[in-house]
Model the fold of this input.
Amino acid sequence: MTDDFAVSFRPPMGELRLSLMSFNIHFGVGSDGEADLARLAAVMRTAQADVIALQEVDRFWSERSGFADQAGWLASELNMHLAYGANMDLDPPRPGAPRRQFGTAILSAWPILTWDNTYLPRFDGQEQRGLLSALIDVNGVLVDIYDTHLQFDDAATRREQAAAIVKLVGTPDRPTILMGDLNAAPGDPEVAELLEVFEDTWETGGTGSGATYPAWDPRTRIDYILASADVTVVETAVIDTAASDHRPVRADVLVPAPGVS
Done:
């Protein structure tokens, strides 16, 4: 990781700078096969992102993550607000224990005013996926944040899921960000579907291929930060880390802020 994001930048009047990160954390397991949530937290802390969209997050799920509340632990460790979307929600292993959950999470340095999780279409036998949304108050400016993780092995399902997201988001009337693991490459139909509503921050602010997977030898770009047309992209980068099987994407953007100078 470089300190490129530390470069001084003076935004024009009427805009606020917001740093974003999308990270599939692979339930805490890194490229070395070891589960280490503290290592993941260190990556996020160094990135200094204001809003972080996480995928593959366990909450009391199984022995693979020590039945830990990964979402709650990361939020506490990073001193951030939390919204969690349980796309898989199972009975506890024993009476009185917490429910076993697996899904996505949004961490925010700014207050989360409301949040919701909506299931996305799937075919029989496929894992349930969802669209987690959070309304964030960024110093008085409202920003809609969405987090998703599309089906990994079926393009037809991903197309259905992308169409559902477009319908759920509608036409943005304020700054809106969609982050997540789309399991699709740039130019794929499901990505093109989302680009009817959003713009790809990598196309504007990134350099190179933007490949994020697999973390140890990235060959494909499947992790994205997409933004509504009223959001200005400053810079987008992939962070070099082996803390997961994906590399995270980070973007600095400017959101319109009427009355702010």
